[in-house]
Design brief:
The complex is a heterodimer. Helix content of chain A is 22%, strand content 33%. Chain A is built from 12 helices and 27 strands. Chain A is of the alpha+beta class. Chain A has a 6-stranded mixed β-sheet with strand order 2-1-6-5-4-3. Chain A has a 6-stranded mixed β-sheet with strand order 18-19-20-17-9-21. Chain B is of the alpha+beta class. The N and C termini of chain B lie far apart (37 Å). The chains are: A alpha+beta, B alpha+beta.
Amino acid sequence: MSPADLLRAYCRAFAARDVATIESLFAEDAVCDIPLLDERLVGRAHVVREIATAIRGLRGIRVELGAIVEGDDDAMAEGLFFGALVGHPAQVDGTPARTDFRFVAVVEAPDGKIARLSEYFDTKPLKPWQRQRLFNHAVRQSPYWESSVRAGAVEFMAYNHMTFPIVYGRTMAEEYVALTERVTLWDVGCERQTELRGPDALRLADYLASRDLSKLELGACRYAYVCDPDGRIICDPVILRPWPDVVWLSHGMADLTLWARGIALEGGWDVAVSEPDVAPLQVQGPHSADMLRGLVEAPIDALKFYRCTVTKVAGIDAVVSRTGWSGALGFEIFPLGSARAIELWDALIEAGRPHGLVVTGPVVHRAVERNVTDTAYATNSGMNPYEAGGERMVDLDAGDFIGRDALARIRRKGARRRTVGLFIDGDLPRLEWHWPLTDARGKPGVVRWAAHSFALDRAVGIALVDAAVAEGERVRIDHPGGGAWASVTTLPFVEA
Amino acid sequence: MIDAGAAIRAYCAAFAARDADSIVALFAERGLYEMPLLRTRMVGSAEIAAGLARAFAIMTACSIELQRVRANGATALAEGTMTATVAREPRPMTAPFALVAAMAGDRVGRLSVYLDARPHRLWSDGSVLALGR
């Protein structure tokens, strides 16, 4: 094929989502420059991987070429690209999320295959470039703030009174693919530790949590609920025991340290309760162990699921646990102090480079399809562990804990509500608050989380519903996009 | 009589020399000039001159390297790299770009610059057309 024919064929195949044909057009040592990507793509495999990811995140693709000019070994064309973004909710006025732009493409093909493809277009209108202002004296800066901003963070949450970068301006597909096929780095400095230190540390943790922690071994981790005396979830920390007399409750958005401190004071426990200067990072994805192997002093492959170890990462004292918010292979790094936070970040970026590391926020699309929720799922709902689907984390027959009597009563009577999955028809608008459900009985619940599942290529949600709502039932969701029908199903949507 | 390829070369030389008059003279009376760093689509001599005035007011040096220019009839496309020193920026900026020139008779009917303005603060800081108002 001539360079112009290759360029035409590439555009046709892109619009047809035909990755195999695209692969056949490129030389093995091809390079590709696309403004939406952070770096030059080198080699056919890299080029095809990123183009396939781009195609996965688009639908309704149209490419129209205008003027094409050709030399002996090259061709250039001006064109128009149109595509709708998959998994990106419409704007609040209903305007769909799209990537439409004019471009120039240049192909060099001296040997009948594309050796270089360069695209030229302005991404300023396509990606957020103004950083959201989140300035409040009650909100602390994550120690990784500068690094997150340098990595392109544009939206933040206030989480545990700390900044939490959640949007980096990439497509949802790019983040999803990086998490499920490579490795991602998240600034979760906002994931705070309630530290219990002293002879009663483990006993107090056991009293705070509904799960039996009395036998928590050194180096073990547990996912647990902390409930109030009425059995309502306060938060759902991962509990770590990195040292014999220290327990960390690594928690979501709740003032857990205040709660634990109050309980400790009231009960006269021999324990110091504090929030130490420990700001974690998550390294999540199938290449996470490969990336960390040379950086973590302890043997990373020996660290089993839900175990932690005290070690050094890039020479920095840290606790490393094989835990995280991806529902698959991943690690959390808890540096002991934030003085060298940027140094740690930079070392992780370097170690991740050969593995295709991408800095992301929490990938909610993956979390929802894996039913990996966090404290926010239960917040402001009065939800108890039975309603949240966490019965296995309530040990009524072990020692006493806060909320035990209430939870025993709830179990005896049966929970009023339960957590279910929803297969949701159509596209999702932006989830700004919980969407009510309706059916013939009235209002049987609310959608609390919703996202596009890339694995299933459809919208899914997690809902808190009346206990009578059964699998297979159809319910109506009242959402700002005009509403949608959904089918009740089980969780998770996708196995690991 | 200038052709499309020559128009691209003339534009690049004049831009690097910060010679607004020569650039304006390349365009047809209702010629269109598109430059992402100026954002606004500029139509006609007055608007194009206003846009270039904005650019050249802050740009203290510029060099343009054209890697290739290809023409087909009244249309030419080119790719190159621009390096510019902008007074308010601590370091020179480098931007790979493509150009499309479409002739209207012996003048440029449309000259479109394609580059990614996202890493850069816009040279216009607002609408070019607000200049002097």
